UniProtKB/TrEMBL annotation:
Origin species: Streptomyces omiyaensis
Domain of life: Bacteria
Name this protein carries in UniProt: Dihydrofolate reductase family protein
Signal peptide positions (record): none
Segments forming domain Bacterial bifunctional deaminase-reductase C-terminal: 3-193
Amino acid sequence: MRKLVYYIGVTLDGRIAGPDGQADFFPVGDEAQAASYADGVNALYPETVPAGLRTAAGLDGVPRRRFDTVLMGGATYRLAADAGLTSPYPHLRQYVVSATLAGGGAADPAVTVVPGDPVGLVRRLKREGADGALDLWLCGGGRLAGALLPEIDELVVKSYPVIAGAGLPVVDGAFDPTAFEAAERTAFPNGVTLTRLLRR
């Protein structure tokens, strides 16, 4: 069965963005460090690079390695849409879980808006793939991650060496201690640590 993988960048205090969704404060280092970091994570997860950056990253035509489907909350989708990316991941099947967007739909026919029941959606998507099928990527946000915590099989956490002080939490839900175990960890020259964790 396919896995649901929450692949996300976080600050040292567990924020995935600032209070208004900003992410421009995440440090990436100097030009050489930033390039080394981008090359490293893009080689591992090329599907996670959005449409507007794929050509510059040399990822046009690169086959999918890990994911064929992306799920995101309404706020995460709106950030992309406001930047002109109404279909931010056209190389993947795209689902937006949002009651507020459900009435008018998404601005792009390649994006499927689901008004509720994210757990039911994920369970259906997990079952439709045969053994060896690519996994599902949860790219944000924190409220959707909180709702889907029972279904998250794996975390891939990019930990940035910065404290936000306030902002959107990596998981925003009820108190539900859930154990994960580190499977591998990679440190990059810019101070970012990429950790893959499996649900216990």
